[in-house]
């Protein structure tokens, strides 16, 4: 119940069930990703996620009956969020007039060096011995890679086998640098390597 401008009391509009469901799922998925980043795959349990959200066990099981269901959904959620972020940031860089190669590589590195990427790394390691996770993670990588490549191709006109190979090499390079940061925290060094790769990528695309 709430008062209107003239002092009358009106009923609060109920939140539609579909919207409540979306909000609850979002809380569970965000908490799962946060736990993967903070604690790693092994310690990301349904109990941990429940404690982070404050939701009841029954509510959690209603949305995700098992830990596997929760982790798989978290992968899909992460893929969608990352794809949107990349497209928005890349568009902003292009509107500023930045060179396509610089824009793409810089935005990619900002994603791969973001702490949230640790969630992906945790799932990648776990997927090696978990067929269900592996299947979903492969779909995640294809979806994200496809959307990123489409955005780059649309802006630069670069396409074909060589352009696609150069793009894939960029993703592999970024993934390798992200993994290397587990052992070596030297952001200046990585910035230098990213700068070197941009120069090499221009050569590859112009060949």
Descriptive tags:
207 residues; Tetracycline Repressor, domain 2; two-stranded antiparallel sheet; 2 strands; 76% helix; 2% strand; globular
Description:
With 207 residues, the chain is mostly helical. It has one domain (15-206): Tetracycline Repressor, domain 2 (Orthogonal Bundle), CATH 1.10.357.10. 76% of the residues lie in helices and 2% in strands. The chain is built from 9 helices and 2 strands. The protein has a two-stranded antiparallel ribbon with strand order 1-2. α1 (17-39) packs across α2. The longest helix has 29 residues, at 67-95.
Topology:
Blueprint: E1 2-3, E2 9-10, H1 17-39, H2 46-53, H3 57-63, H4 67-95, H5 100-112, H6 117-127, H7 131-156, H8 161-180, H9 187-206
Antiparallel strand pairs: 1-2
Summarize the structure.
It contains 9 helices and 2 strands.
Instruction: Give the CATH superfamily.
Output: Tetracycline Repressor, domain 2
Number of strands: 2
| Main sheet attributes: strand count, strand direction, barrel closure | 2 strands, antiparallel
Task: Work out the helix count.
Answer: 9
Helix content: over 70%
- CATH class designation: Mainly Alpha
Radius of gyration: 21 Å
CATH architecture: Orthogonal Bundle
CATH topology: Tetracycline Repressor, domain 2
The overall number of domains is: 1
Mean pLDDT: 85
The helix/strand class is mainly alpha
What is the chain-wise order of helices and strands?
Answer: EEHHHHHHHHH
Q: Based on CA inertia axes, which overall geometry fits? A: globular
């Amino acid at each position: 119940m709430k008062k209107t401008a003239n002092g009358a009391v009106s009923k609060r509009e109920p939140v539609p069930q579909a919207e409540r469901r979306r909000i609850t799922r979002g809380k569970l998925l965000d908490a799962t990703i946060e736990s993967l980043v903070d604690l790693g795959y092994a310690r990301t349990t349904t109990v941990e996620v429940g404690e982070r959200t404050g939701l009841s066990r029954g509510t959690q099981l209603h949305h995700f009956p098992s830990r596997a269901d929760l982790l798989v959904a978290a992968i899909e959620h992460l893929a969608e969020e990352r794809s949107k972020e990349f497209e928005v940031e890349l568009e902003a860089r292009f509107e500023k007039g930045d060179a396509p190669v610089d824009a793409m590589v810089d935005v990619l590195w900002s994603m791969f060096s973001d702490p949230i990427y640790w969630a992906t790394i945790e799932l990648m390691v776990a997927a090696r011995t978990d067929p269900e996770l592996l299947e979903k993670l492969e779909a995640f990588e294809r979806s994200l890679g496809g959307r990123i490549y489409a955005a780059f191709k649309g802006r630069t006109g670069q396409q074909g086998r060589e352009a696609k190979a150069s793009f894939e090499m960029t993703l592999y390079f970024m993934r390798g640098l992200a993994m290397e940061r587990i052992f070596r925290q030297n952001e200046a060094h990585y910035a230098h390597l990213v700068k070197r790769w941009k120069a090499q990528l221009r050569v590859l695309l112009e060949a």
